[in-house]
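Reviewer comment 2.1 asked that we show a complete input and output for one of the modelled complexes. We chose the manganese (II) ion case, as it is the one discussed in the main text.
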Amino acid sequence: MRASQRLGICGLCLFLLAIPDRGSPDLESTARAAEQAGPSLHVNGARLRQTLEKLSEFGRPAGATFADGVTRLGFSEEDLAAREYVMGLMRAAGLDVRVDPAGNIFGRRAGTEDLPVLLFGSHIDSVPNGGNFDGDVGSLGAIEVIRAMNEHGVRTRHPLEVVIWTNEEGHHFGKGLFGSSAAAGLLSPDVLERRDEQGLSIADWLHRYGQDPARFLEARLPPNYFVAYLELHIEQGGILDREKIPIGVVEGIVGIHWYTCQAHGFANHAGTTPMDQRRDALAAAAKAVLAVREEVRREPGRQVGTVGYMKVEPGARNIIPARVEFPVELRDLDAAKIERIWERIQQRFQQIEREESVRISCTLLSSDRPALTDPAIRQAIRQAADSAGLRFLDLPSGAGHDAQQMARLGPVGMIFIPSRGGISHSPQEFSDWEDIARGAEVLYRTILLLDRNPPPR
Ligand code: GLV
Ligand code: MN
Ligand code: MN
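Response of the prediction step:
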């Protein structure tokens, strides 16, 4: 086993030494030719596809097909059943499975030396009416990497751990990156008291997930737990698809602020209340939506802002709306810019309050800091892609990822694969099966490179 391991890794090293520099015409044409011929993969793309298709059944609407997408919210019966399936895959791959008090699933493969772990994985929960690739590709891709290493007799110096984070999307309970935030020590136990519309708290759900909420803080990973954290993910934007490049090397991940706002007006008769005497919460909220858009657009850059829903009360044709709840989401790689834009939005809301005689109040529900990926890990991903004959591109992530919470604890890196048409958080989300296999292959090779040369701390 050890001899074949050394041979395998040294073979990769020799190949790496033999390849020309990034960007040279030779490398470009070699990479294109290899892509057309299909690079030689250690991972099994057909097997990975089969597990992704099986996972898609958990939370699939009744009577629907794979193409109809999935609703598998974090902390739901569908998620619970999917987790059992995934834990079965992990055990079948020889991983030693444990679940932490935040519900995060870890599967460990021993290393040959007493070293911190190489941690990699993603999430399997979805948004409402989501697709079958966001999170699933990185989660099942990670398990496929383990199976491939088993088949190739590869042993690593560092222990390997596959992680499946709990409730990454955070639609349920309004806290995205839930499991990784707990693992990074960013959540206080108060969060467990948040209740959903059925009256169940996060603590209730942790019980259902077999955990003791009283031990929640023990989910925090100890210092220096991992030598590197890696996440394979679909891009969820359109850059790689447009450029026809199979691998993205993520430079950084946006910060995300979530606010919940309420416009408070006055319910009154829609037929008898003159137009100049109304306190219409929905009219004020509509102005607020446009104000968010205008203030986000006011300065140059890639920052984005979204109002994703409105809940109107009482919600009848002939009653002036008394109350509207709407969220404001702001994202950028620069935390100070998010704050600056939020200041301006609040000033606009004050102006709308005066114009409409409606009160608008907002509370911060969650804020996740932006994070940069580690330069040494980015370089390892580029080398891994080169060695597989795959072209790559450095790019930022406009989506949030558990990797940004892990960046608080140690060096992180992310590998992106193309999303067709840049569509995500939609049943139409799709990534080519070949691209998924290529992404898993780059994950496999990056892990081996980092096992030999971990990033400096
Ligand atoms: C997670 O997918 C997010 O970016 O909202
Ligand atoms: Mn998502
Ligand atoms: Mn995701």
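Residues 43 and 441 are 6 Å apart (CA to CA). We note this here for comparison with the apo prediction described in Section 3.2.
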